[in-house]
Write a structure and sequence with these properties.
- This protein has two domains: about 70 residues; about 100 residues, Alpha-Beta Plaits.
- It is about 25% helix and about 40% strand.
- It has a five-stranded antiparallel β-sheet with strand order 6-7-5-8-9, covered by helices on one side.
- A hairpin with a 5-residue loop joins strand 2 and strand 3.
- Helix 2 crosses helix 3.
- The chain is globular and about 50 Å long.
- The two termini are about 35 Å apart.
């Protein structure tokens, strides 16, 4: 699947996003072309075209990017974004089968929730002693922190075990806890 995700700030500084992707059907010669757009932090609007030939889908994606660039949109480099770490406290040192289920469910819920709002992408997950870390790359970290809390509640996961930290892309050692506040201990990944 090819995806293009571009952003721009309007005159008031509000971050807007547009993204498009072409996804071929399994084993088929056609697929669907999807355009998703909106204001970062709000549910996006989506348009899709089905039964698009693969070659036409790539051409549509190229045309989409060209139009976005003309409209003042651009990709945001990872270096210009922030890490948002959703961290769950675990009862065991290494994590149990139940914790593996939590990892899969939380990561999937966050992928969809944040993605449809232009707030970031889940980049990876990992276990540390008594912790599950879900690493999110976000162009709007303050809005992403609020969205993570809402998402975890809506997914019926235990928000009382959730901590959220934010750091610049280039300095993960500068993690600052943003939820819950006030922080009772330094926010660490290990």
């Amino acid at each position: 699947m090819s995806i293009a995700r571009l952003y721009r700030r309007d005159a008031e500084g509000v971050l807007e996003f547009r993204e498009a992707w072409f996804e071929a059907e399994d084993g088929g010669e056609t697929g669907q072309f999807v355009v998703n757009r909106g204001i970062a932090g709000h549910q996006s609007k989506t348009e899709e075209v089905k039964d698009v030939a693969a070659e036409a889908g790539e051409a549509l994606l190229d045309a989409f990017v060209e139009q976005c660039l003309e409209d003042g949109y651009a990709e945001i480099r990872p270096e210009d974004q922030h890490w948002v770490i959703a961290q769950f406290a675990l009862k065991s040192v290494e994590g149990t089968q139940r914790d593996r289920y939590l990892e899969a469910k939380a990561a999937e819920a966050l992928r969809g929730f944040l993605g449809w709002r232009g707030l970031g992408t889940v980049e990876s997950t990992d276990f540390a002693p008594r912790k599950l870390n879900i690493r999110i790359l976000s162009p709007e970290p303050a809005k992403a922190v609020a969205a993570v809390r809402v998402c975890i509640k809506e997914a019926d996961l235990d928000v009382t075990k959730l901590s959220i930290g934010v750091a610049p892309y280039s300095d993960l050692s500068a993690l600052k806890q943003k939820h819950p506040l006030p922080a009772k201990a330094p926010f660490t990944l290990d």
